[in-house]
Amino acid sequence: MTKPILEVNNLKKYFEIKGGVFGKTVAEVKAVDDVSFTVNEGEILGIVGESGCGKSTTGKAILRLLEPTEGEVKFEDQDITKLGPEEMRKLRRHMQIIFQDPYASLNPRHTVEKIVGEPLLVHGMTSAKERKDRVQELLEVVGLRAFHASKYPHQFSGGQRQRIGIARALANNPKLIICDEPVSALDVSVQSQILNLMEDLRQEFNLTYVFIAHDLSVVKHISDRVGVMYLGKMVELADKDEIYENPKHPYTQALLSAVPVADPDAQIDRVILEGDVPSPSNPPSGCPFHTRCPKVMDICKEVKPVFQEDEEQHYVACHLYE
Fold first, then answer.
1. Buried-most residue among 79, 262, 263, 277 (CB within 10 A)?
2. Can you identify the CATH homologous superfamily of domain 4-108+176-181+207-321?
3. Tens of pLDDT, residues 234-262
4. What residues contact 19, with CB distance under 8 A and at least 6 apart?
């Protein structure tokens, strides 16, 4: 069994809400609330959920682009939440991120050579010729041409820009890449190209991905295991085939029932959820999903369910399985 490259234990990220004349903290937005999981070397873990459920915040907190409020993040058995700025800077070459928006994540004033070469310079490649050669090699790896290095981001399509973002993430041969909805801004035909590219790069460079998305069909295509988040909490985690064929949590069942099927004659039992997602600044007591759950019981309104193993390697936070 491969060892976990990443361990996330009881991760929390709260944002303070200021108010009043003196700007005191009047409330907190619980964006990520007690999330735990592991990722094995060479694995792709998909994280899905509705917009605003804390997926992207989890990814950024793992890399300390946002400082976690509580909890530990172990990368290769080292708790990175306790590292100083210089130690963290050295570690960043092994942990990278591909951002959601390929239009906003590239500096429009810089050439592709400068954008992709910057991480190389930061981590010690001082020779301009070495950097230039490495940038051209990376562009070829992600399906672009060496001559693209002298161009600017506005001269590329969305799919090409995302390839540039992937080349930048690969620059220093990282071990772990957080993919923050990397294909959600792209056309469907381009999505499949980028997903296939990421799959090929995983094989070629033995990469480990945490793949954040809200499109369940995309996650099924690329992931090995899938975690489902709701209102800042992980509610279910299992192997992708297990989750898609045997979803346990009522929220997962509702999500999967909404996935479109190509067959027009197929009979689908849609689970229609009532109401809206509660505010993370004022989450409901007990189970956070109880206000919309079709199977709600009295205990759900009072007691928070424990995220625990129900079957082998299938974790769920639901009173139905306790």
1. 277
2. P-loop containing nucleotide triphosphate hydrolases (3.40.50.300)
3. 999 999 999 999 999 999 999 988 887 77
4. 26, 27
